[in-house]
C-alpha cells in the first residue's frame, strides 16, 4: 500500500506558507516567498572597490540566471563604489537587484554612505557580528533603521561560524540547569534558531515590516542544515534563504549542497537558494548558478534551460562521439538561453536526448522532444534522429554533430517561436 501511495502522490510536499518579500530594482521585482518560485541567487568574489570588474561579474551571474546578486560591502572604499556599480549595470541594461553583504561595520557604512544604502536592493545582516556587549543592540538598531529609512528588505543571516557567543554561552548555562541536559549539538541548533527568530522579532519591533524580512541559518553539515531549517520553518512564517555554508569545491560541494537542499525543498521548505561553491582555480563564478538551477530543475520545481539526456557509456560505446556531441549540445543550449528566454518562451522545458547505442538510444530519443541515437561499437554507422516521438531522418558521415545541432536550432525556432 505504501508503494501505491507513493506512485499516486509522489512529488514535493506543498510549499511552506511564508510571507512574500519583494526585492526590486527599477521595474524588476523579484518576489521571495509567498508561493513565488524558489529564487536563485549568487555572490561575487571580486573586490567591490573594482567597480567595473564587479559590475562585469554581476552581469555574468545575472545572464547565467541569478535573480539576485550579493556583493561584499566591507570598507568605506567599497561602500563608495556601490553606486558606481549600480550605475554601470544600469547602463548595460542589467536590472538584477544587488544585495549588500555587511559584517561588523554595516551600521557605519549604511549611515555614512547614503548613496550606497539607496543603490542596494537588499541588505544582509549577520546578528552574530553586528557588535559586541552593550554596542550590539545599538548597532543592530542602526542597520534596521537604515533599512526602514530606505525601504529595503533585509536578510537576517545567522551562521554557525559567527554565532552570537553571548547567546550561545547563556543557552549553555541554561541547558546545564535542565534535569536532563540536551547534547551540545541540540543547544547549537536552538541558539541558531533563537538568534534568527529573535533578531527578526526585534527588527519588527523597530519598525521593519515582516514582509521585508528573510531569514537564514547556515551551517556546513548536511544533516545539521536539514534539522535546523526544518525546525526554523516550523517556528516562523518568514521567507527562508537556503544554503549550505562553505559547501566546498568541485564534486564535494555540488553533492553536499544538492543533498541538503533537495531534502528541504522536497519538504516544501525554502524560498530562495544559493549554492556556495568554491570555484576551481580559474573556474567561472557562474558555476554556482548552474548548479542551483539544475537542483531546482531536476526536482521539477522550475525550468531554466533545455535538459540534455545522455547515457553514461559502456563497453558498447567505445566511441567518444556521443560524449562530445552531448557536451557540445548542452553548452550550445545554455549559451543560447539569454537570447532564447524572450524569443522562444517554453524552450526551457525542452528535452534533448544524445544516446550512444541502440540498447536504450531509440527509446530515450522517442521520449525526448528531439533525440539522436549514435552508433555503438560494431553497429551500422547510422544515427537515427527522432522529433516528438517520430523518426525523421538518419544522419551519417563526419558531420553528424554539426547537422544535429542545426536540426535542434530549426526545431526550437519552429516549435517555440512566437508565430507558433
From TrEMBL:
Its cofactor is [4Fe-4S] cluster. Pathway: Isoprenoid biosynthesis; isopentenyl diphosphate biosynthesis via DXP pathway; isopentenyl diphosphate from 1-deoxy-D-xylulose 5-phosphate: step 5/6. Residues 308-409 form the IspG C-terminal domain. Residues 30-292 form the IspG TIM-barrel domain. GO terms for molecular function: 4-hydroxy-3-methylbut-2-en-1-yl diphosphate synthase activity (ferredoxin). [4Fe-4S] cluster binds at residues 311, 314, 357, 364. Pfam families: GcpE, GcpE_C. Binds 1 [4Fe-4S] cluster. It catalyses: (2E)-4-hydroxy-3-methylbut-2-enyl diphosphate + oxidized [flavodoxin] + H2O + 2 H(+) = 2-C-methyl-D-erythritol 2,4-cyclic diphosphate + reduced [flavodoxin]. Converts 2C-methyl-D-erythritol 2,4-cyclodiphosphate (ME-2,4cPP) into 1-hydroxy-2-methyl-2-(E)-butenyl 4-diphosphate. HAMAP family: IspG (MF_00159). Belongs to the IspG family. NCBIfam families: ispG_gcpE, PRK00366.1. This is 4-hydroxy-3-methylbut-2-en-1-yl diphosphate synthase (flavodoxin). The lineage of its organism: Bacteria, Pseudomonadati, Pseudomonadota, Betaproteobacteria, Burkholderiales.
Amino acid at each position: 500500500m505504501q508503494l501505491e501511495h507513493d506512485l499516486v502522490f509522489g512529488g514535493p510536499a506543498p510549499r511552506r506558507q511564508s510571507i512574500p518579500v519583494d526585492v526590486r530594482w527599477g521595474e524588476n521585482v523579484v518576489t521571495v516567498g509567498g508561493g513565488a518560485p524558489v529564487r536563485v541567487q549568487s555572490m561575487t568574489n571580486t573586490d567591490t572597490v573594482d567597480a567595473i570588474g564587479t559590475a562585469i561579474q554581476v552581469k555574468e551571474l545575472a545572464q547565467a540566471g541569478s535573480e539576485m546578486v550579493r556583493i561584499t560591502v566591507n570598507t568605506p572604499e567599497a561602500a563608495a563604489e556601490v553606486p558606481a556599480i549600480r550605475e554601470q549595470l544600469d547602463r548595460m541594461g542589467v536590472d538584477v537587484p544587488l544585495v549588500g553583504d555587511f559584517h561588523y561595520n554595516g551600521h557605519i557604512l549604511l549611515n555614512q554612505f547614503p548613496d550606497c544604502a539607496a543603490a542596494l536592493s537588499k541588505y544582509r545582516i549577520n546578528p552574530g557580528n553586528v557588535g559586541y556587549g552593550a554596542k550590539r543592540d545599538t548597532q543592530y538598531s542602526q542597520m534596521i533603521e537604515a533599512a526602514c529609512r530606505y525601504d529595503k528588505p533585509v536578510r537576517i543571516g545567522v551562521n554557525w561560524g559567527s554565532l552570537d557567543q553571548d547567546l550561545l554561552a547563556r543557552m549553555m548555562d541554561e541547558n546545564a540547569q535542565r534535569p536532563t541536559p540536551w547534547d551540545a549539538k541540540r543547544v547549537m541548533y536552538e541558539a541558531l534558531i533563537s538568534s534568527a527568530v529573535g533578531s527578526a522579532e526585534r527588527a519588527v519591533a523597530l519598525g521593519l515590516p515582516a514582509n521585508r524580512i528573510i531569514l537564514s541559518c547556515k551551517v556546513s553539515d548536511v544533516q545539521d542544515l536539514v534539522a535546523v531549517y526544518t525546525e526554523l520553518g516550523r517556528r516562523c512564517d518568514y521567507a527562508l534563504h537556503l544554503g549550505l555554508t562553505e559547501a566546498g569545491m568541485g564534486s564535494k560541494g555540488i553533492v553536499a549542497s544538492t543533498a541538503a537542499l533537495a531534502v528541504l525543498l522536497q519538504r516544501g521548505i525554502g524560498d530562495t537558494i544559493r549554492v556556495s561553491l568554491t570555484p576551481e582555480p580559474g573556474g567561472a563564478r557562474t558555476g554556482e548558478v548552474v548548479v542551483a538551477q539544475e537542483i531546482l530543475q531536476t526536482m521539477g520545481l522550475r525550468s531554466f534551460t533545455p535538459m540534455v539526456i545522455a547515457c553514461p557509456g559502456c563497453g558498447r560505446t567505445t566511441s567518444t562521439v556521443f560524449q562530445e556531441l552531448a557536451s557540445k549540445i548542452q553548452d550550445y543550449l545554455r549559451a543560447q538561453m539569454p537570447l532564447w528566454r524572450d524569443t522562444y518562451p517554453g524552450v526551457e522545458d525542452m528535452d534533448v536526448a544524445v544516446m550512444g547505442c541502440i540498447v536504450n538510444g531509440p527509446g530515450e530519443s522517442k521520449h525526448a522532444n528531439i533525440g539522436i541515437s549514435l552508433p555503438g561499437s560494431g553497429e551500422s554507422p547510422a544515427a537515427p534522429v527522432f522529433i516528438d516521438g517520430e523518426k525523421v531522418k538518419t544522419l551519417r558521415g563526419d558531420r553528424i554533430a554539426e547537422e544535429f545541432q542545426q536540426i535542434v536550432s530549426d526545431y526550437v525556432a519552429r516549435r517555440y517561436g512566437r508565430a507558433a
